[in-house]
Design a protein that fits this description.
Layout: E1 5-13, E2 19-24, E3 27-32, E4 44-48, E5 51-56, H1 58-71, H2 74-78
Antiparallel strand pairs: 1-2, 1-4, 2-3, 4-5
Length: about 80
C-alpha cells in the first residue's frame, strides 16, 4: 500500500534540488520539494517516498496524524521507514 504522510516543513535548502527538513510527528526527515516549489518553512506537505507531492492546511494535517497514531504508522517512520 502506498501512503502519503503529512509533515511540517522546518527549513528549506535551496540548490540544484530544493530540499527541506520535514517533521512527521517528532521524526525529522530530508524531503525533496521539487514538486511543490511554493512550499516554505511552516507549511504542511504530503510526502510520498521522500518527495513532497502537495501542500495541505494544518487542520487537515492534524486530522491525518490522529489517524496515523491510531494505526501506529508513526512508529514505522521512527524505525527508518520512508514517508
Amino acid at each position: 500500500m502506498c501512503l502519503g504522510v503529512p509533515g511540517r516543513v522546518l527549513n528549506v535548502t535551496e540548490g540544484d534540488l530544493r530540499m527541506a527538513s520535514v517533521e512527521f510527528g517528532g521524526i525529522v526527515k530530508e524531503v525533496c520539494l521539487a514538486y511543490v516549489p511554493e512550499a516554505h518553512a511552516g507549511d504542511y506537505v504530503i510526502v510520498h517516498v521522500g518527495f513532497a507531492i502537495s501542500r495541505l492546511d494544518e487542520a487537515e494535517a492534524a486530522r491525518v496524524f490522529s489517524y496515523l497514531r491510531e494505526m501506529e504508522v508513526l512508529a514505522e517512520l521512527a524505525d527508518g521507514g520512508t514517508p
